[in-house]
Inverse folding.
């Protein structure tokens, strides 16, 4: 009996693999079974959850649990083969890649969206047109916590800075904290709300206010708020948070690509492969629906290519294992991807 | 009652005959039925008591968990003046900023609702013609049926902009004053309706006596009827205040999310209910210290309303005027 059933499972798996690799795929989808285990970044989780949600309509028998252990926590489980997919709000690090290699884990690196932050001020704010990262730190960090605008720049008015910020457990807040106060804390005398609308109203109705939230939300409210240009620390040039500037990587450091890393061995399982295909097909739409910026379509084409050809490795580490920075289309190329 | 009811002698004769025609019910079975009905009634009555007890137990257990967590202490909670569970270098759990917010909202709300509610009640009970009252009272009670989220938006999009037009007054977009006024408007029907009931319950003879002594309608209302109905009016005020303390949606929308102690009601503040709503609907981890802090806050809130109810009870007893 057990021999029979294991043969059965084998046959099922085989037919599953065959099913997805040929035109009959659509018929077999509803009967696909199994489990796709995902863990990692809380920033990426909303997109993964949305993908899992829409996937469950297509393949109701496949369960896709999405856990949140943070990017590092996700990779920790990923590199020992505990999970199929790792949600990551940054590219894999050298140490993580090396552990994976040591454990014989190969992976596919798939970018899925951009996360970007916009720092916003009131429409009538005539002084704060651009900010350097140091000035942002001066305003938001607990150890500096500038009370008045003139404390940030002596030529700015002697008015109280009123701060509106998104919920402290949101990916947006985490990202901001990572950039501004990775080694410290965000000041506590600010108004925090999970509700982005409350932030928009707060900043748009308070002349001396400053706030931040996801780029996508700013794009829907450009008529009510002014976005502050952020001085790129590398080039020294102030950059506005436009889709183009985010795509080109110029709007740094307040934007970053988000990834999923898929265990190459897991992709041989039909349910994982179908799920990842579905994820990449829907990524642009899902990303926008949860408040992120979609990647240029070329990036998705390349990601689908990587999935099709099973090209393993990362493109974000150079030969010496140093992390690369820049526009996604410059870095994420088939030629750059290496184990 | 000395008056004897007219008894039809035929009726007195009838029952035994009727009983005789019916088969006798087994006594044991009747007792079982009676017991069953009695138990059912007791269970229904106990239901709300048990729910209250369950809530108290839940609050107590979870509050204890909160105080066992690192970084919290009972004295720090009860006497602390800083509340920053989510931000800053070290987290502080001092309840006073939240109590300050709640008190501001309640005081402002009562400053609006007590005079307006009482005046409305006096008008309805003592001045308005019967037909007008029949229209006005249901209309006023309609005010109580408006969802509080509507009042919240009303505060944010109407009262606050209105306050901002007052020259010399600097008003934050989210502020306690506007939310307090909205909570006050919300409490008017509660206070006016209950006060009016209390005024109506004052015996007609008292009014007639006062009029016969030459009192005007105002004299009668203010010097006779209101003092006579004082216990009912005070209990209406206290019910209104309890409502204001517990009001959540309006303050969550209009008062803001910054817990702080301030002497100025035009700045952003957070109440106890506002904090609970913020954490409960947010996505903070369900096992963190900030999550358990909402139980400690809820327990404080519960203790406050309980005190208010007890004070109300004492006042009611002391001021009660019995006329029967």
């Amino acid at each position: 009996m057990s021999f029979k059933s294991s043969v059965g499972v084998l046959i099922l798996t085989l037919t599953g693999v065959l099913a997805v690799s040929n035109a009959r795929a659509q018929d077999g989808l509803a009967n696909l079974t199994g489990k796709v285990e995902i863990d990692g970044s809380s920033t990426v989780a909303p997109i993964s959850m949305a993908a899992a949600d829409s996937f469950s309509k297509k393949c109701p028998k496949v369960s896709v649990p999405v856990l949140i252990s943070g990017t590092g926590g996700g990779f920790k489980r990923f590199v020992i083969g505990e999970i199929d997919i790792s949600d990551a709000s940054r590219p894999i690090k050298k140490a993580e890649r090396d552990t994976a290699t040591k454990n014989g884990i190969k992976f596919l690196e798939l970018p899925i969206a951009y996360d970007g932050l916009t720092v916003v001020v009131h429409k009538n704010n005539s002084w704060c047109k651009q900010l350097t990262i140091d000035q942002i730190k001066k305003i938001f960090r607990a150890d500096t916590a500038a009370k008045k605008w003139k404390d940030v720049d002596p030529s700015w008015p002697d008015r109280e800075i009123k701060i509106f910020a998104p919920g402290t457990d949101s990916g947006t807040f985490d990202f901001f904290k990572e950039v501004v106060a990775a080694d410290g804390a965000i000041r506590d005398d600010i108004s925090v709300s999970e509700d982005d609308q409350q932030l928009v109203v707060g900043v748009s109705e308070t002349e001396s206010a400053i706030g931040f939230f996801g780029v996508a939300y700013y794009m829907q409210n450009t008529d009510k708020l002014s976005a502050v240009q952020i001085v790129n620390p590398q080039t020294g040039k102030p950059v506005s948070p436009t889709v183009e500037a985010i795509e080109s990587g110029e709007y740094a450091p307040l934007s970053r690509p988000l990834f999923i890393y898929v265990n190459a061995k897991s992709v041989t399982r039909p349910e994982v492969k179908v799920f990842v295909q579905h994820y990449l097909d829907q990524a642009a739409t899902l990303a926008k629906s949860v408040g992120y910026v979609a990647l240029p379509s070329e990036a998705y084409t390349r990601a689908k290519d990587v999935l099709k050809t099973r090209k393993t490795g990362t493109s974000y580490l150079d030969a010496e294992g140093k992390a690369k920075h820049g526009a996604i289309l410059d870095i994420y190329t088939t030629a750059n991807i290496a184990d | 009652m000395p008056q004897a009811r007219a008894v039809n002698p035929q009726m007195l004769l009838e029952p035994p005959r009727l009983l005789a025609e019916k088969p006798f019910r087994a006594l044991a079975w009747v007792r079982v039925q009676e017991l069953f009905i009695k138990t059912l009634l007791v269970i229904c009555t106990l239901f709300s008591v048990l729910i209250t007890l369950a809530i108290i137990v839940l609050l107590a257990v979870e509050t204890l968990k909160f105080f066992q967590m690192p970084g919290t202490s009972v004295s720090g909670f009860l006497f602390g003046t800083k509340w920053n569970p989510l931000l800053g270098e070290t987290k502080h759990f001092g309840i006073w900023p939240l109590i300050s917010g709640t008190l501001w909202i309640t005081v402002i709300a009562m400053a609006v609702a007590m005079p307006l509610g009482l005046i409305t009640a006096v008008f309805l009970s003592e001045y308005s013609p019967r037909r007008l009252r029949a229209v006005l009272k249901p209309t006023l009670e309609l005010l109580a049926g408006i969802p509080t989220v509507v009042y919240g938006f009303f505060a944010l999009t109407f009262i606050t902009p209105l306050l901002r037009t007052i020259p010399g007054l600097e008003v934050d977009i989210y502020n306690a004053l506007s939310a307090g006024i909205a909570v006050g408007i919300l409490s008017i029907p509660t206070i006016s309706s209950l006060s009016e009931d209390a005024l109506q319950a004052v015996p007609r003879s008292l009014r007639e006596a006062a009029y016969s002594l030459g009192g005007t309608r105002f004299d009668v209302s203010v010097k006779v009827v209101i003092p006579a109905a004082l216990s009912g009016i005070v209990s209406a005020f206290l019910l209104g205040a309890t409502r204001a303390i517990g009001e959540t949606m309006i303050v969550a929308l209009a008062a803001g999310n910054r817990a702080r102690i301030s002497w100025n009601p035009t700045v952003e503040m957070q109440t106890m209910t506002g904090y609970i709503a913020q954490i409960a609907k947010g996505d903070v981890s369900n096992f963190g210290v900030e999550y358990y802090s909402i139980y400690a806050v809820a327990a404080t809130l519960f203790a406050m309303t309980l005190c208010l109810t007890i004070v109300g009870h004492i006042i009611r007893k002391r001021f009660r005027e019995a006329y029967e």
Remarks:
- The longest helix of chain B spans residues 27-68.
